Design the sequence.
């Protein structure tokens, strides 16, 4: 895992960075070609656009803290910044 942080300020930023590094992940201050995860406090940042364009996983910072607490990498699904939308059924055709 190579992670980048977006929207966090110290001391929260420092705690998240240290949590990821303690787990063996690598940290980058800015989105880079080798980055895999962007831990975001909120949406709408330039880093989010960069991460989406290159296929990065957008998670909340809580993912790093939960991984640290469990001492292992957890699935990102519960921590996604924008959870995938469930498919919707097509609307019924109008009556003739």
Sequence:
């Amino acid at each position: 895992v190579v992670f980048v942080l977006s929207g966090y300020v110290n001391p929260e930023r420092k705690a998240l960075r240290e949590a990821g590094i303690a787990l063996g992940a690598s940290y980058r201050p800015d989105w880079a070609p080798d980055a895999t995860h962007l831990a975001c406090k909120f949406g709408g940042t330039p880093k989010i656009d960069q991460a989406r364009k290159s296929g990065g996983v957008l998670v909340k910072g809580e993912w790093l803290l939960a991984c640290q607490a469990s001492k292992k990498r957890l699935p990102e699904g519960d921590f996604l910044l924008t959870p995938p939308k469930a498919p919707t059924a097509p609307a019924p055709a109008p009556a003739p």
User: Anything to note?
Assistant: Helices lie at 12-22, 46-53, 62-70. The two ends are 55 Å apart (CA to CA).
